[in-house]
Amino acid sequence: MQVPAELRYTKTHEWMKREASEAVVGITAHAQEELRDVVFVELPKVGKAVKQGEPAAVIESVKAAFDIYAPVSGTVTRVNEAVAKTPQLVNQDCYGAGWLFALAPSAPAEASSLLSSEAYAKQVQA
Amino acid sequence: MSSALTTGPLQKTALHERHRQLGAKMTDFHGWDMPLYYTSILEEHQAVRQALGLFDVSHMGQVLVTGPDARETLNRCLVSDLAQVESGRACYTLMLNPEGGILDDLIVYRLGEQDYLVIVNCGNRASDVAWLNAHREGRATVTDISQGRSIVSVQGPLACRVLEQMLDAKVAGLSRFGIAPVRHMGPEACIARTGYTGGDGFELFLPDAHAKRLWDAILSAAQPLGARPVGLGARDTLRVEAGLRLYGTDMDASTSPLEAGLEWTVAANKPDFIGRAALAHQRLQGLTRRFAGFELAQGPIPRGGTALEAGGRIVGTVTSGTFSPVLNKPLGMGYVEPACAAPGVALTMTVRSQRYAATVVKLPFWKGQAKQPAIPNLERTT
After folding, report:
1. For B299, which of A40, A62, A63 is closest by C-beta distance?
2. Measured between alpha carbons, how far is residue A12 from residues A95, A104, B306 in Å?
3. Label partner for A7 (CA 20 to 30 A): which of A81, B19, B284, B319?
């Protein structure tokens, strides 16, 4: 299973990629495999303030709806309109075209609580 | 889909080991360890619509009702008139309580002059057998023959051609709701042109050993044509697309056939049956709710329990919903006030504080096509 080394992870299976002033967020390969058949994605509104560990988006698969938690606190700067239109992108390319939203972190120190790729891979295999 | 009331180890069908070998994700369905999906619910759904899907539905109950008074017994307990069902034919029917509430929905196959095979929902198997025994008329015997027997369901546009090649049984000659023996597969082995997908398909009622051989043979021969094993996940999305109700979800002992839109199953002219007076009374009184289907242009899946609104007030509740990969939109079914059950009525559904527009449409959402693509000669291994 794919766990890119350059990303940081949550225990709840989100990934976060630090870019210049933003953090891009999506769900991991393990999460999309567990969900399967993603048919609906509900994204936050741009400008919305989100808190670390609180629900920021929702992914629905045929089976059920799942909350997606903000890896760090911040303000939503961009959302992936393509994934809202074509939810299957989450299954097809969860680390690329299937990204969910980007935010401007308000408490950068929170990122230190995220998992490395090794630590996340270990959690998933456990 | 799982039953919270179940305790103890899960029951396994004869094909359980096959599901494991095929990498199925398993689920607890009314105390049975059943495949939810093998690879993907939506891919399995499409395989059934475009090619062939192989289902293990051996968790369903198989009950024989036989004897000179078998027909009287069934006519007393069911809404259909079994006198209208010829040998080698079947009907979809309902079992009611005296209040007109639905105890189960089932298919009754007439195997011979005095022999009927009744297929019941697995969650109702024990109570149905007890009910039939309690209302047995004269010389009739009710026997639960489920133990040691399987049900393999073969559904989709390729099903007829594939089975025709694999079985020494009349397959293409079977009409919808027809049933015929498969003599070389043991006593009471039958093939019927029935299913739960809304499209063409067959169900085979077989001794366990034959079911395993048939399962393997169909998969190995028809996989190159797009055939797949299909789990209960796609069984649910397929039946919603076909507008078929699920017992325990879309109807139960508190719903009547009139409310559930199943009045067509109730015979107008037959001797008295349990629930008849209650239905007559309900017809006079009028209904307070009706079963209806609705679709969303886009949005979340309508989940059971979600309120349906019209004109700013709640007019009903969702019972079933799914995403249709064929129609590419969310579909839902549920009960609404009779005035809101007509096709074209605009409803709204609120999910996580967002409102979504829905429109009532005529059921079924999807109607089966008749086309049967040609297939090459298959290797016979049965």
Report:
1. A40
2. 16, 20, 27
3. A81
Write down the CATH number for the domain with range B288-361.
2.40.30.110
Chain B residues with CB-CB distance to A37 below 8 A: 40-42, 323
The C-alpha atoms of residue A8 and residue A60 are separated, in whole angstroms, by: 23
Identify the CATH number of the domain defined by range A8-107: 2.40.50.100
In chain B, which residues touch A (CB < 8 A)?
A: 36-37, 40-42, 233, 237, 299-301, 303, 322-323, 330, 352, 354
How many angstroms separate the CA atoms of B82 and B193, rounded? 18
> Looking at beta carbons, which residues of chain A come within 8 Å of B40?
36-37
Which residues does chain B have within 8 Å of residue A58's beta carbon, measured at their own beta carbons?
A: 300, 352
Which of these CATH numbers, 3.30.1360.120, 3.30.2350.10, 3.30.365.10, 2.40.30.10, describes B16-58+147-241?
Answer: 3.30.1360.120
Domain ranges of chain A: 8-107
Same topology, domains B62-135 and B288-361? Answer is: no
Architecture of domain B62-135: 2-Layer Sandwich (3.30)
ipTM entry: 0.92
pTM summary value: 0.94
CB contact under 8 A, A40 and B42: no
Q: Mutation target for A interface from B295, B349, B351: give the one with most A CBs within 10 A.
A: B351
Q: In whole angstroms, give the CA distance from residue B188 to residue B64.
A: 10
Of all residues in chain B, the one with the smallest CA distance to A57 is B352
Across the interface, do A40 and B330 touch by the CB < 8 Å criterion?
yes
Q: Residue B219: name the closest of B59, B379, B43, B76 by CA.
A: B379
CA pseudo-torsion sign B325, B205, B173, B364: negative
d(C-alpha B139, C-alpha B134), whole Å: 13
CB contact under 8 A, A62 and B352: no
Contacts of B295 in chain A (CB under 8 A): none
